[in-house]
Specification:
Chain A: Its EC number is 2.7.7.-. Chain A: Keywords: ATP-binding, Cytoplasm, Nucleotide-binding, RNA-binding, Transferase, tRNA processing, tRNA-binding. The complex is a heterodimer of chains A (about 350) and B (about 475). Chain A is α/β, with parallel strands linked by helices. Chain A has twelve helices and ten strands. The N terminus of chain A is likely disordered. Classes of the chains: A alpha/beta (about 350), B mainly alpha (about 475). Bound molecules: zinc ion (ZN) (5 copies).
Chain lengths: ~350, ~475
Amino acid sequence: MDETGAKPKRSGARLCCTCNQRRAALKRPKTLEQICRECFYDVFEEEIHQVIVTNQLFKPGERVALGASGGKDSTVLAYVLSKLNKKHNYGLDLFLLSVDEGITGYRDDSLETVKRNEIQYGLPLKIISYKDLYGWTMDEIVKVIGLKNNCTFCGVFRRQALDRGAAFLKVDKLVTGHNADDIAETVLLNILRGDIARLSRCTSITTGEDGPIPRCKPFKYTYEKEIVMYAYFKRLDYFSTECIYSPNAYRGFAREFIKDLERIRPRAILDIIKSGENFRISTTTKMPEQGTCERCGYISSQKWCKACVLLEGLNRGLPKLGIGKGRISVNDSEDRNGSDRGKSIASKQCGTLDF
Amino acid sequence: MACNGTGCKSNCYKDEEAGVAEVASCTQSAERTKSGAAEANPISDTLCIKCKVNEAISGYGGIDDGRFCADCFRNNLFGKFRFSVTSNAMITPTDKVLVAFSGGPSSRVALQFVHDMQHRALKNFDASRDRSLPVFGVGVVFIDESSVSPIPSNELEKAVKDISSIVASLAPPTKELHVVPIEAVYSSESSDRRDKLIKLVNAVSDSTGKEDILLYLRMLALQKVASEFGYNRLVLGSCISRIARHVISATVKGQGYSLPADVQYVDARWDIPVVLPLRDCFAQEINMLCRLDGLKTLALSTSPHSGINSLVSSFVQLLQEENPSRESTIVRTAGKLIPFHFNRIPEIVDGKVPLATQRRQKRYSLKSNESVSSESFCYLCNSPLDKSETVDLSNLENCRSSDIFGASCCSSCRFQILPRDTTSLEQFYTLLPHFLVARSKQVNNRNLSLLREQIQDCLLSDSEDET
Ligand SMILES: [Zn+2]
Ligand SMILES: [Zn+2]
Ligand SMILES: [Zn+2]
Ligand SMILES: [Zn+2]
Ligand SMILES: [Zn+2]
């Protein structure tokens, strides 16, 4: 309520405001309530459980793949989801699905984390590599195209790799660790870019229900800060080094704005998502008609899917093919990465917010 | 991110070669680019692309910066104003319009343009033999907010003097000036209205909420003046830059549902329809015109903005500096959201609609069937409520009017303006202008009035109902 922020309180022996028994150990980022660790774990997990139940994300007996990068979001998701699956008898067969882009000194290390998670959480792991799928590693791609447009490849290839891995595992659903901050950022970005079609669906908790494998986001209402807090207190094993091909720890205007908002009004993140859900958008505003790629059969609104266009460029020694707008654009009406300019407004360039 | 994210937590810089401006976004500019031989004139960077005679000027921002000479710039800006006025039937010959003038550049330009239009109409009237087309009337209102802003009294006196001379200079035709204190939202007999207002504003603890309730009260004051003096239009100077900020702050405050109501050219949810003829003009263009034409503006000292609104303001400013079409893209996005049935001049029924308006409504599919009618409005900020926000009043057992009021406000007002506990809310309720309390009468939804019938005996009798 008071935006100027609560006065620093001397938290001597303050009691948890939930259980009133244990000492409060933290201020919950979402509500600023002072609670103990155990109550934090409870409320954190329970909120996710409620999201899963009220949105009917899963049906008993389903096979579900977790997109696992070794980072904090997917690590916490794997931990919490396998815990809830046991506790509430969801009856799910869970798998870890990782993409190996082939980035020496980065992905190989983070994959070690995922491999440890495989053992720690007892979840089978499938790794799908760019090299196997496309014949190129990111290291090799960067050697050809330099550091400039590598994110375009990164994003397009990863998206397709996850779908192919999910198909390989014969799963019914793919869950990703996109959190509330990510979704709030996407709402803002779509407003800033004038993308009404994406604006209309970016707050959906489940997407691609018409496609082969629906994706869903159990962390839709979970704050990034709480995920970090959970991982920290639980001492979860995750990998936090930045990608070596994205050297600038530059956050993007929109993300910084959201962090500033959160500081004076934590509820703002949920309010942005709420706005996104309630926007009155004409039902005739549709995404381009989806067909299949003539070359690889992947879902695509164009003759060739984006990955095939990029790949064609790489193989023909024209790596810029399909990158950016208005250049050698073969069919890049869907390109999100070339559509902005200068200093970036988005925090993640490789299309990872375009779920 | 799970699937990806850390992969390229990316932060990699964008493709910088693509640093060209986005396609012009507002209709006019798109048309202009099409018709004018804009790009086909590489002779000189400094020649005006329109007349190709005078030297172009720059510094007015937006997508047209540096393309026009002073004359063409002026004509272009007035053209945008005129286009929104005619294509939305904002002003017709029989109207009496009230221009809200704060002293700032936007409302100054709105006032100037309305005057220019009226002046032309007068010339036509004098020249015509049958004198068939009357000239619309214009009045000006200045809301004095000194009771709630730290404005020194001498500064205010000087401001009022300046405003009077500005308005006097805009004649003929003569324009009536109304200088009204914001506490006029209370009924005239209450002598302690200034104290009441201060108490009301101080009862709001959230700094953003404080700013926002003042906005709502200002609108109420404007509406009151307009209806007391027989005006039938209220002209605001809201420009692209201001509306873009509103789009973002409404989103951040969770008001996504009601947002489209605020960003259209016409907002007739009020007794006196509100029109925004500068909706397609950038703040920098407006500032430029004030400089070029020596239009006097005044900057009253106000409390520094804080909280959400100021964060949004600096965010949008940053984005606009990064890309000169960003603000208009934001407004264009919000313009694509489905407007409400009241986002058009109400008395226009099909058949009577001017041709230009018909065309525009066709182009933007502003058909009444598209603009779904809304059932109820927030009692405080008057924003249309989403179904999920309308509370079943029959659940309110205790029937306290303050509770009913609270439950009938949007969630944003409940969060940032209304006090949480019942006692403070009751206190807050007694401080509200009756104008606001009586707003419920605007709710014409049948269900709600049925509910009201059930609780009628518990509602305060609105003896002071002012409208
Ligand atoms: Zn506790
Ligand atoms: Zn990347
Ligand atoms: Zn393909
Ligand atoms: Zn010119
Ligand atoms: Zn409200």
